[in-house]
Amino acid sequence: MSLNRKMPEPPYYAVIFSSRRTDGDRGYGKMSDKMVELATQQKGFLGVESARDEELGITVSYWDSLESIQAWKEHSLHSVAQEKGIKEWYKSFSLRVCRVERHNFFEM
Predict the structure, then answer these.
(1) DSSP 17-53
(2) Of 1, 5, 28, 38, which is closest to residue 104 (Cα–Cα)?
(3) Which residue ranges of the chain lie beneath pLDDT 50?
(4) Which among 4, 22, 24 has a CA at the least distance from the CA of 14?
(5) pTM for this one?
(6) Between the CA atoms of 43, 59, 14 and 34, what dihedral angle is there, to the nearest 10 degrees?
(7) Sign of CA pseudo-dihedral 93, 99, 100, 102
(8) pLDDT tens digits for range 58-74
(9) Beta bridge partners of 16
(10) Which of 45, 53, 51, 55 is nearest to 15 (CA)?
(11) Which of 10, 4, 84, 11 is nearest to 40 (CA)?
């Protein structure tokens, strides 16, 4: 995903999800695409950025409020993906919720 330069003025929130995957796909790629598509339809969603190498994946989603983040966490289809992640797709993960106080963007 590309850098999201069309963000509102701060403050807003970032959810940082870092993960180490298990071997094999087992439906992960398809579910990941579906979750991004679904997140974009949620109230308060502002954008997403994601990167992955052989060991570590980082996805940062941006939201307008803590309430929007909580609603996304509790979304029924997202809950299914979370359960599959714990059982099948992740060796480990961390999730951090941060308030963005300031942002700057540069593009050549």
Answers:
(1) EEEEEPSS-TTHHHHHHHHHHHHTTSTTEEEEEEEE-
(2) 5
(3) 1
(4) 4
(5) 0.90
(6) 10
(7) negative
(8) 999 999 999 999 999 99
(9) 60, 96
(10) 45
(11) 4
Identify the three-state secondary structure at position 98.
Answer: strand
User: H/E element holding 66?
Assistant: helix 66-74
pLDDT value, residue 14: 97
- Sort 35 into a burial class: Cβ within 10 Å, 0-12 / 13-18 / 19+: buried
Strands (E), 53-89: 57-63
Given a contact cutoff of 8 angstroms between Cβ atoms, the answer to whether 94 and 18 are in contact is: yes
**Contacting residues for 70 by C-beta, under 8 A, at least 6 apart:** none
Amino acid at 28: Y
Provide the residue type at 53 as one letter: D
| pLDDT score of 15 | 98
